[in-house]
Amino acid sequence: MLVPSAWHLLFLGSGSAFTEGGDNWQSNLVLRAPSGARLLIDCGGDARFSLAEQGVEAGAIDAVYVSHLHSDHIGGLEWLAFSTRFALPHRRPRLFVSDDMAGALWEHALKAGLGCLGSGPARLETYFDVVPIPAGGGFVWEGAMFETVPVLHVGGETCRSPAYGLSFDLNGRQVLLTTDTRFTPEILMHRYRRADIILHDCETAPMGSGVHARYADLLGLPAEIRGKMWLYHYQPGTLPDARADGFRGFVAKGRQFV
Description:
The chain is about 20% helix and about 25% strand. The chain has 8 helices and 18 strands. The longest helix is centred in the middle third of the chain and has 13 residues, at about 100-115. The N and C termini lie close together (about 10 Å).
């Protein structure tokens, strides 16, 4: 049961990009404010299914935050754009996106499908109330402050694709949501220590991709850090016993944090 005066963070899914549905969906979340407004944290290609499973219609999404430009985090934005554009009453959800990726989001990901309507050319602003975030900055939604957290995900010296986690207050507890990140304690340790709840990217496949934090690496973190860390964005299949290893556990789809 929802507590009206509380914030609620819901995992629509907690799986990797290659999750195939059934027992899980891609790692997208919904944050519900005490007012009832909903912030969708990433909108991957299966968002329309994972939202429907939780009884949330496209029209109930008031805002979207985009962490980075991989399809499991933005692949559902065309569906959301059209669904809200042609719904009655028509509405434009706010779109919070770092200004170092907003141009690429439109030009390289969304323009091909959304750039032309029956009435003529369209822009990203046709569908969304775009709120650019200064790189590494933050934004305010429903009176609460959200701090973006730069993370290292894909790329290197010659090519870097921006990616950002989020830090925010959830009913008096500080949450660190890493989104997709490599294992970089040298970058994130001060964030780990500051947070009360850590929701961490965790790769469980035997062969690591090199662009996600691996379970074996996270095991090397201090016990006091593992003791407040929930793991998500994992691959299908048998999972390690995270609780026995000192973590809070693996996040299942539908899990709520209040």
